[in-house]
Design brief:
heterodimer; A: nine-stranded mixed sheet; elongated; B: Rossmann fold; nine-stranded mixed sheet; binds flavin-adenine dinucleotide
Chain lengths: 319, 257
C-alpha cells in the first residue's frame, strides 16, 4: 500500500456522526499494520473549530466553502474526489451512510480506483483485501483488490466509535477547491414526534415484511401493549404506510436498545441491524433458517409468526 | 420531462441461497430472480413524476432472461411508455459493468432525469446509480425519498438518518438514487401485464460486454453460520411461545407471571 489512509468525515449540526469515529478507529488499526499516516477530510463552511474533535487523525484536510455549509451531494462528492485525485491516499474510507453513498463512487471513478462496497473489515497487511456483506447480509464475501490503492465504503459497526473519538490537535491543512453547481441545499426537515417514543420502551415487538398486511399488525400491537411496550417496524412496513416513520428501526429510522427486542418476520438486513443490535435481549422469529437476523439474535425460533402470535397472546392473557 | 428508470433483476432475497462448487459465487442454476426492491420504488417515483409533469418514462434493463422481460413488461403495464432490453447474454455483471452498459445506452438519448434504486444486494463494487452519474458527469442525489418539478429542474428530498431529511434543487440532467417513492409501489393486474406483452413498447438493443474491470475480485463467499451466537428454540409454536414468555419474564418485562 502507498500513501496515507484518508477518512472522509461526516457531520450534521456541528456534530460528527458515530460513523466518522468508527472509520477513524478502523483507520488507526490499519495504520498500525501499514505504518501509513491517518488523515481526515473535513468539508463544510466554518468548520475549522471542529478539527480538535479529530484527535484520532494525524492531519486534517480542511475544505471550506459557503456552498458546502450543509451536505451538498454533488458538491461534496466532487470536491472530495478532487482532493483524493490530488493527494493520492492509499486507502480512502467512506462511511456507507446517506452522505457516503453520494460520495464513494465519485471518489473512485475520478481517480480510477477500485471501490469495495458493503465492507465490514479490511486487511492491508499484504496487498488490499476485505470482507463484505452481500445479499442483505445473507452472504459474506472475501474480496481482493487489484493494485495498492482503493476506496472502501464501510458498513456501520466495522469498529467501535469509542476507539476513534479522541480530542487532540491534528495538523490542519486548508485546501482550496472549486465547488461545482448541480445540487444546492434548500432546507432540512426534522422528524415530527410520534405518538409513542420507541427509543424508551422496555420491550419492542418489531414487525417486518413477513407481517404481510396492515391488518395483521393489530394483534401484534395489542400484544406489545399488554407487555407494556410498543410495536415497531422495519422499513418496508413503514414505506407501505402501515405504521408511521416514528416506528421505524434502523439506519434511516431510530436506534433502539430495549430490554427485549422481539423480531417477527424481519430478515435482519444490515440497515435494520445497525438500529437494534445493542438491545439487551434479541429474540428473532423467522421462517427462513438462513435469515441474517439469527446472526445478531440471542434467541431464535424458526417458524411462522402467524402460528406463534396467537399462542403468545393466549399465554400472556392467562398469566 | 423525459425520464429513464433503470431496473435490475437480483437474486430473490427470500430464497435459500446455495454456493457454487468453488464457493466464489452463488449457485445460479436454480436461483430465482426478482426486481430489485429499490428499483421498484424508482419506477414508482418515475411514474409519479410523469403524472406530475407529462413527458415519458422509459425503462431499461440489462439481460435477456425471462425475468428481465417480465420486469420490463410489468413496467409497461404500470405506465412506462417504452422499455428497452439491453440484450445479449452477458452473464453475471458487476456494478461497474452495468453502469458502463447503462451509460452507453443512455448517452445516445436525452433523458432529463435518470432514476435507479439506491442500491442492490449484490453491488460489491459500488452502487450502479452513483457510478453512472460519475460516468455521465451528471449531478446526482442518492437516498432520495421524494421528487417534485420546479422551474429550474427538480426539487428532491434526501433522507439522512433518524428521520431527518434535506431538500435540494437539482439541475438537469441528473441521476437520482431512489430509496423510496413518495407512495408504495403500485400493483398491476395480471391482465394488464398480458396486454403490455403485446403492446410493442418493448424493444431490444444489442450490447457488448464492457472491457474494463472494477479491480475487485471475490475470492470466497460463505453463508454466515445461522444463529451464530443465538440459542435456537426448538419445538412447535406452543413450546416457542412458552420459552419466549419465560425470556420476557427473565428480562423483567411484561409484569409478574
Ligand atoms: C439507505 C438505506 C437505509 C435503510 N434504512 C432502513 C431502516 O432504517 N430500517 C430498516 O428496517 N430497513 C432499512 N433499509 C432497508 C433494508 O435494506 C431492508 O430492505 C429491510 O430492512 C428489509 O425489511 P424486512 O426484514 O422487513 O423485509 P425482508 O427482507 O423482505 O424480510 C422479511 C422476512 O420475513 C420472513 N417471513 C416471511 N413470512 C414470515 C412468517 N409468516 N413468519 C415468520 N417470518 C416470515 C422472511 O423469511 C424474511 O426473512 C434501508 C435501506 C437503505 C438502502
Amino acid at each position: 500500500m502507498s500513501g496515507a489512509i484518508l477518512v472522509v468525515t461526516e457531520h450534521l449540526g456541528g456534530q460528527f456522526t458515530d460513523a466518522t469515529f468508527e472509520l477513524l478507529a478502523l483507520a488507526n488499526g490499519l495504520a498500525t499494520s501499514t505504518g501509513a499516516e491517518v488523515e481526515a477530510a473535513l468539508v463544510g463552511a466554518d468548520v475549522a473549530g471542529m478539527t480538535t474533535q479529530l484527535g484520532a487523525a494525524g492531519r486534517v484536510l480542511l475544505i471550506e466553502d459557503p456552498a458546502l455549509e450543509s451536505f451538498n451531494p454533488h458538491g461534496h462528492a466532487c470536491v472530495v474526489a478532487g482532493l483524493v485525485a490530488d493527494r493520492e491516499p492509499g486507502i480512502v474510507l467512506v462511511p456507507y451512510t446517506s452522505t457516503g453513498m453520494d460520495m464513494a463512487s465519485h471518489i473512485a471513478s475520478r481517480s480510477d480506483l477500485p471501490l469495495v462496497s458493503y465492507c465490514q473489515s479490511i486487511d492491508a497487511s499484504a496487498g488490499l483485501a476485505a470482507t463484505c456483506q452481500l445479499y442483505a447480509g445473507k452472504i459474506e464475501a472475501d474480496v481482493s483488490v487489484d493494485g495498492d490503492r482503493a476506496v472502501f465504503a464501510v458498513l456501520s459497526g466495522a469498529a467501535a466509535a469509542a476507539d476513534g473519538r479522541r480530542d487532540g490537535s491534528p495538523t490542519v491543512e486548508s485546501v482550496t477547491v472549486e465547488v461545482p453547481g448541480g445540487t444546492s441545499f434548500t432546507g432540512q426537515v426534522e422528524p415530527e414526534a410520534g405518538d409513542v417514543d420507541i427509543t424508551v420502551q422496555d420491550v419492542l415487538l418489531v414487525v417486518g415484511r413477513g407481517i404481510e398486511s396492515e391488518d395483521n399488525i393489530e394483534e401484534v400491537a395489542e400484544l406489545a401493549e399488554a407487555l407494556g411496550g410498543a410495536v415497531a417496524a422495519s422499513r418496508p412496513v413503514v414505506d407501505q404506510g402501515w405504521l408511521p416513520k416514528t416506528r421505524q428501526v434502523g439506519k434511516s429510522g431510530l436506534t433502539v436498545k430495549p430490554k427485549v427486542y422481539l423480531a417477527l418476520g424481519v430478515s435482519g438486513a444490515p440497515e435494520h441491524v445497525e438500529g437494534m443490535r445493542d438491545s439487551s435481549t434479541i429474540i428473532a422469529v423467522n421462517t427462513d433458517p438462513q435469515a441474517p437476523i439469527f446472526g445478531v439474535a440471542h434467541h431464535g425460533w424458526v417458524g411462522d409468526l402467524f402460528d406463534l402470535v396467537p399462542e403468545l397472546a393466549d399465554l400472556l392473557e392467562g398469566s | 420531462m423525459d425520464i429513464a428508470v433503470l431496473l435490475r433483476a437480483v437474486p430473490d432475497p427470500v430464497e435459500e441461497l446455495e454456493l457454487n462448487d468453488d464457493e466464489t459465487d452463488l449457485d445460479r442454476d436454480y436461483l430465482g430472480y426478482v426486481l430489485n426492491e429499490f428499483d421498484d420504488h424508482a419506477l414508482e417515483e418515475a411514474l409519479l413524476l410523469k403524472e406530475d409533469t407529462g413527458g415519458s418514462v422509459t425503462a431499461y434493463a440489462i439481460g435477456t432472461s425471462d425475468e428481465v422481460e417480465q420486469i420490463l413488461v410489468t413496467a409497461i403495464a404500470k405506465g412506462a411508455d417504452a422499455a428497452v432490453k439491453l440484450g445479449d447474454d452477458l452473464g453475471v455483471l458487476d456494478a461497474h459493468a452495468q453502469s458502463e452498459i447503462f451509460a452507453a445506452a443512455l448517452g445516445e438519448r436525452s433523458h432529463q432525469a435518470i432514476l435507479c434504486g439506491v442500491q442492490a444486494s449484490d453491488e460489491i463494487d459500488g452502487q450502479v446509480a452513483m457510478l453512472l452519474s460519475a460516468r455521465l458527469g451528471h449531478p446526482h442525489v442518492s437516498v432520495v425519498v421524494a421528487t417534485s418539478v420546479t422551474d429550474a429542474g427538480l426539487s428532491v428530498t434526501k433522507e439522512y438518518w433518524a428521520g431527518i431529511t434535506a431538500t435540494y434543487d437539482v439541475r438537469l440532467p441528473a441521476v437520482l438514487g431512489i430509496q423510496a417513492a413518495r407512495q408504495a409501489p403500485r400493483y398491476v393486474a395480471v391482465s394488464r401485464i398480458r396486454q403490455a406483452q403485446d403492446s410493442g413498447a418493448l424493444s431490444e438493443v444489442d450490447t457488448v460486454a464492457p472491457a474494463s474491470s472494477s479491480g475487485v475480485t471475490i475470492t470466497a463467499i460463505r453463508i454466515p453460520e445461522s444463529g451464530a451466537g443465538a440459542e435456537m428454540i426448538s419445538g412447535d409454536e406452543t413450546a416457542a411461545a412458552e420459552q419466549i414468555v419465560a425470556l420476557l419474564q427473565a428480562a423483567g418485562v411484561g409484569g409478574a407471571p
